[in-house]
């Protein structure tokens, strides 16, 4: 592709190895991007279900989820709209804990994540295990704000942030991959920021 | 009602667009019209990605909604020049007619008007851009009755496409300017309600703050949240 006449790198290079290609450091900002009307969900009525190809379909209420061992992610997040945010801290529960309770069947290979708004996103099951994915309700030690997916969102920080579904309500385990909302809208099925997998075909 | 499940997958590839026209309606806005190589059809509400490439292969890319409708020969974008905005400052200050940019699109199949469903666009600031594409498509179809637009700006001078909106019959409201007997201020549910009759789908576009306000007004008017499609932008755009 051609060089753009008159365009030069102005931003300083980010910290070595922390900024994936095509991303910039948004600093203290945290842009809000949603496709649907922001829902008002009371923690008392929120729940999350793990079902599909599992031995024990299980639903946790807000109180149930808070009985599980808490887990915190501290690190970076990367949005496909090209901002990255360094050193964020989210607290909730590891998805491993939920999956262990539900017992994935051997043919479960993909997960379709559902939000209470109807939003969906798809991931390989392997991206949700091994301490790399969380269901979170605290951000920087405070309740997660509704515009950022509160009361509870998914967090998969090693993939572009649209995979970290806001207002998460269900993890559906599947044998075959089924594209979610942005994935049907032209975005990539996996979304690895280090491989710059932004759009279908990347 | 169409749900989030009904969107069809799509693939786009990078192409190039030559700048045919460039205009700064205001110092903080730039309007570009591009001739896009191997252009695909688009629906009103879709966006393009523009990618700038430096000699050292450093790239910066941003998404911008289309103002043009599909029947127009050129692809039109209106970009707000954000202070420190790596791409928007380049487009406003450096890019010239004749320059070639990397482009990709159209992208997005959710915040799109199907050109059939009676709809209301509630848009603020540069969020008017997709509503312009919708209005042009409706006019081209000779079905202006299918689309109502309520556009909100700080004042007449800063509202993009103000004249075109007014000519198209849009309702224009100003938050910091008294006009036509209306004192300045945020839109109210009473101002939204008369526009709802027969409307089946709602498009909200603007800053996160505007989107929150507009969603709240629609909820106050009893609109079902599932009928509302939202496009927000911020410093990332």
TrEMBL record, chain A:
<dbReference type="Pfam" id="PF00174">
    <property type="entry name" value="Oxidored_molyb"/>
</dbReference>
<dbReference type="InterPro" id="IPR000572">
    <property type="entry name" value="OxRdtase_Mopterin-bd_dom"/>
</dbReference>
<feature type="region of interest" description="Disordered">
    <location>
        <begin position="1"/>
        <end position="29"/>
    </location>
</feature>
<dbReference type="InterPro" id="IPR036374">
    <property type="entry name" value="OxRdtase_Mopterin-bd_sf"/>
</dbReference>
<feature type="domain" description="Oxidoreductase molybdopterin-binding">
    <location>
        <begin position="37"/>
        <end position="182"/>
    </location>
</feature>
<protein>
    <submittedName>
        <fullName>Sulfite oxidase-like oxidoreductase</fullName>
    </submittedName>
</protein>
């Amino acid at each position: 592709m051609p060089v753009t006449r008159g365009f030069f790198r102005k931003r300083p290079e980010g910290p070595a190895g922390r900024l994936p290609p095509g991303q910039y450091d948004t600093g203290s900002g945290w842009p809000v991007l949603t496709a649907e009307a922001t829902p008002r969900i009371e923690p008392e009525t929120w729940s999350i279900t793990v079902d599909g190809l599992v031995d024990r379909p299980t639903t946790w209420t807000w109180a149930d989820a808070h009985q599980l061992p808490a887990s915190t992610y501290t690190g970076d997040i990367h949005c496909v709209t090209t901002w990255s945010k360094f050193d964020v801290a989210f607290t909730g529960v590891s998805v491993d804990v939920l999956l262990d309770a539900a017992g994935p069947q051997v043919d479960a290979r993909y997960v379709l994540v559902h939000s209470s708004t109807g939003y969906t996103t798809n991931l390989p099951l392997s991206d949700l295990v091994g301490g790399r994915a969380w269901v979170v309700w605290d951000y920087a030690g405070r309740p997660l704000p509704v515009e950022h997916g509160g009361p509870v969102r998914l967090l998969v920080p090693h993939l572009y942030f649209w995979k970290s579904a806001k207002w998460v309500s269900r993890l559906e385990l599947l044998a075959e991959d089924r594209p979610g909302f942005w994935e049907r809208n032209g975005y990539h099925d996996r979304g690895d920021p280090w491989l710059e997998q932004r759009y279908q075909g990347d | 009602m169409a749900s989030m499940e009904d969107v069809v997958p799509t693939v786009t590839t990078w192409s190039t667009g030559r700048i045919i026209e460039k205009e700064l309606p205001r110092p903080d806005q730039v309007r570009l019209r591009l001739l896009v190589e191997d252009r695909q059809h688009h629906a009103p509400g879709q966006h393009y990605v523009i990618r700038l490439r430096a000699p050292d292969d450093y790239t910066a890319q941003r998404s911008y909604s289309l103002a043009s409708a599909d029947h127009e020969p050129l692809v039109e974008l209106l970009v707000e020049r954000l202070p420190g905005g790596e791409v928007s400052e380049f487009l406003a200050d450096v890019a010239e007619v004749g320059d070639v940019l990397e482009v990709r699109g159209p992208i997005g199949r959710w915040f799109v008007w199907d050109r059939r469903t009676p709809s209301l666009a509630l848009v603020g600031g540069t969020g008017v851009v997709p509503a312009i594409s919708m209005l042009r498509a409706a006019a081209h179809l000779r079905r202006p009755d299918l689309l109502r637009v309520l556009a909100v700006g700080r004042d007449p001078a800063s509202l993009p496409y103000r004249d075109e909106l007014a000519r198209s019959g849009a309702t224009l409201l100003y938050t910091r300017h008294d006009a036509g007997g209306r004192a300045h201020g945020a839109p109210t549910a009473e101002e939204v309600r008369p526009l709802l009759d027969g409307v089946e789908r709602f498009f909200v576009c603007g800053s996160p703050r505007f989107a929150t306000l507009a969603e709240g007004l629609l909820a106050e008017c009893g609109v079902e949240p599932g009928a509302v499609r939202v496009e927000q932008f911020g410093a990332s755009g």
